[in-house]
Predict the structure.
Amino acid sequence: MKSSKTGCIGILTSGGDCPGLNAAIRGVAKAALAHGIKVVGILDGFRGLAENRTIPLVDLAVSGILTHGGTILGTSRDKPHKMLMGEQIMDMTGPAVKNARRLGIECLVCLGGGGTQKNALHLLKEGGLNVMTLPKTIDNDVAFTDISFGFDTALSIATEAIDRLHTTATSHHRMIICEIMGHTAGWLALGAGIAGGADVIMIPEIPYDLEVVAAHLLERRRSGKRFSIIAVAEGAVSKTEAARIRGSNKKALEKKAAQRDRELLKMIRKLPGRETTQELHVVQEPMASRLARQIQYQTGIEVRLTSLGHVQRGGTPTPTDRLLCTRLGTTAAELLFRGVYNVMVAVQGAECVPVPLEKVAGKVKLVPPDHAWLRSAKLVGTCLGDEL
Ligand code: F6P
């Protein structure tokens, strides 16, 4: 029997959590252990690596977790090269790589979305650490893979929410806006909107015109349909906002907003008993609140808003996600056995295949303007906010 080219791996989960992370950890770990590879679990993403917090992932530790939501390893949005340590933001690349080496880790398997691909590539380029990634995100926006795990579960949750909103909207003859996650990519809002039969779907890739949306909703009323469901992605913007963003120095605006947030959070940390090493973010109101007020103003029809938020990321994964995670995880272990590193394990067609991480990192998969889902949505009379 051939022996494994890899003796020991580390696994971490990074970025926003999603259903399927435990199934993927289990898939990698069980198959790696079966190939004679030692597995170290790193806690709380890249922060745990920098702070040397680990657990041994023996068979018993990954047993019985297939159906569990969340991640047994914990996660964080920390970047190795920009980590809040006490009061200071520090580059922790050196300590992270040193810890990995001391633990005997020959390849670090990172389960995460777009940010994680970039952070993993950073560890490879700046620290010479071998890495491998698995595409995880409910946003489904990781490039070079047909699908990311977590998306199918979130799609089911968001679709069920729209179904439920339909019955109450119908009873009260109301319009209900359902805000769905997705800051830059609209896959989830578009998919759930089509599956749930939303009357209007608004996604970041297609800036909307409020007058077009209002006219569509009023036309539905006139034709005797006394309710409407509007599925809107968190990142949907109007045509005017899109033009303003295009014309502005986006980076400078973001920097200014981040600075404002940092000052507010610094103030919070100074209050007695509020010390924390966790990166804090300013709590935002649902993005669609303003949109809900505007639509009510434009149409004179009663509007309600439901923001699904983190419900979309919680709970047990669907069978499709469990299957996907197990396929991705076990393929990762087979590649590690053969000594294939510095790739993302992607889904392309019916296969799980390695794609060089260098190709993937920094790219985002958005909904293309000619995508078949958009065509289908239009053909069943759904308004996408851009034209009547
Ligand atoms: O990365 C996935 C995602 O679910 C986005 O769609 C969402 O905007 C974001 O995470 C929010 O995550 P958190 O509240 O954990 O920062």
In short: The domain at 8-149+314-360 is CATH 3.40.50.450 (Rossmann fold). The pocket of 6-O-phosphono-beta-D-fructofuranose is lined by residues 15-16, 113, 137-139, 181-183, 234, 313 (CB under 6 Å).
